[in-house]
Amino acid sequence: MSNKRASPGAEVTLGPEISDEDAQKLTKLGKDIAAREVVLERRALEYLQPHYENRRPILKTIKDFWPRAFRNMSGTSLHLQHQQDLDALAFLEDLWIVRDKDEPRCFTIEFHFKENPFFSDSVLKKEYKYLAPQVEDGDKEVLDGVTNANLEFDFDQHGAPQAIKIQWKD
């Protein structure tokens, strides 16, 4: 008998044997959990909405709140490399998110600006438009307003970014 060990990965590991019936039950339970998670996410958004509405006027009174917030966020600060972007951002006074009524995970971000030398728009809107997944019985409700299409939602595939139209000043 050899004392040599097999190389890592040489052993075949098998998962538990599951009958087709049990696999179907687990798939159904997984879908139910996913639906409940979507319901909870929607309820959390509804529950927090009054808080966001109450917070909004307070943030407007804090000098340079939004420009500083954007500059301090690692994800957005990478996109603020040009001095012109930073200069324009200095005029941002409010930010608001409007959720899509059919799929709240898609939304429009409203950027509210003070009068500035860059563009004449007071509000710029960046929309992530909901493109419903093409699934069988997509409109069929699974649980508390959640449809089959909602369960198949993937932001990268079903949240389509729309172009922003800006009225630039000369």
TrEMBL record:
SUPFAM superfamilies: NAP-like. It comes from the Eukaryota. One of its GO terms (biological process) is nucleosome assembly. InterPro entries: NAP-like_sf (IPR037231), NAP_family (IPR002164). It holds the Pfam family NAP. GO terms for cellular component: nucleus. Coiled coil: none annotated. Belongs to the nucleosome assembly protein (NAP) family. This is Uncharacterized protein.
